[in-house]
Predict the 3D structure of the following.
Amino acid sequence: MILGQLSRGGAGVRVQRYLLPGSWQGVRGAAVAAGEPLVAGEPREPAVKTQIPGPETKRQYEALSKISPCQSVSVFVDYDKSIGNYQVDVDGNVLLDAFTQISSLPLGYSHPDLISAATSQQNVRTFINRPSLGVFPGADWTQRLKDSLMPLAPPGHTSLTTMACGACSNENAFKAIYIWYRSKERGSKDPTPEELQSAMVNQKPGCTDYALLGFNGSFHGRTMAPLALTHSKAIHKVDIPTLDFPMAPFPMYKYPLEDNVAENEKEDERCLARVEEIMHEYKNKGRPVVGVVIEPIQAEGGDNHGSNEFFQQLQAITKRNGAALLIDEVQTGGGPTGKFWCYEHFNLPESPDILTFSKKMLTGGFFCKEDFRVAQGYRIFNTWMGDPGKVILLQEVLNVIKRDNLLQNTVVSGDILYKGIRELENRFPNVINSTRGKDRGTFIAFNGKDAATRDAIIANMKQKGVQLGGCGDAAVRLRPALIFQPHHANILLDRLEQVLKEF
Ligand SMILES: Cc1ncc(COP(=O)(O)O)c(C=O)c1O
């Protein structure tokens, strides 16, 4: 099926570079194939009016900085005007958003189905009466979880805990691991009186010396325990006391993968050997590694991928050593890799023991196997433990994903993006390299020649109307919403070509 020209506008004519595969299906498949937006009312293309950041963002930045630290602010957004894949800033610049609030908008801006759910009279009391879910859940809470999150649980995961954000999902999932391990050791789920007394004064045996193993380049959040396992940016960690948790190397592959098979296999072996070594070292020190914590794709650290074999072997190592395997799907979960959970790509013999989520899932939380369910109340707990309003929205998101076949949309758009960027990499090898994310939906990244080049690519793309993100030392990452369609991919590629030509 040839799609032909897509649209005309100020920036000229864009041509679909790649064709949709024959397998394209879905209720709205025909409209999508014709380049119709899934979200009605979306602009046809970006429109940049000012230098970004523009004068109104600068004025608002001045005002905000007087009352709140805001060095990380990029632009102030006009959320009334932003729609679908397009973010509109307070200066009226219309950007195709391929970063979507650090990968956390499943359906882009102001999706009509979410607006209906949020404004329905039926839901309004859930939105305004935020409960302390661990103590006072609403009458419909169990059914809501059964209808929304539970069908997404990895096979063998019988327990779900909701939380507010990514870091607190990890923080609490780590606690579930310590509690699981200690219960196994003592042969009972109930702590002894001596353990309870010593825990009150931060002493053993009540407080344990257990270690969790993390990886170089990882990011798990900015609260204390996730930060101890985070090794991507020094500025996140400096000045903060930490836990003595070991760090193993994460595979750093050479790209293209197909040209570097033997070398990358060796890289897997090197990293896995070090994991096993650390486990033995810590066991000998009397500080067992009770859990291994890993992202399926290291995102903040630079979009570093591990092979399926790497993850399979890693799981085997955790099993051999009696440790839990926690997969942090905070950034990868909810469909951007073309499967609902990224770990599903790995063909693991069994599910990881714990899976944490947030971002595109709208609520944070974790799924775990039955053994990791904590026996006493208030141990894994906080005041809100999530928010039923977010679960109402998530239910709607899941309906739309299914109705509009958005995982398939992500696979198709991702394929166009990946092939297009590889082609650009071949044409501009001195500017970009290491395109990665093949068969991982739109979860795609490439490197600039160096950090300065990467930063310039992102800034110039923004000025041409496309918002991208940076990660790691020199990577540009794409994190569009699940409604990012083939015609959006072609706009992105078109602007990227223009930017690369200017180097
Ligand atoms: C893999 C991963 N884990 C945890 C977090 C922390 O999530 P939050 O920022 O919601 O605390 C992030 C955030 O980017 C992440 O990418």
About this structure: The chain has two domains: 45-114+406-483+497-501, 124-401.
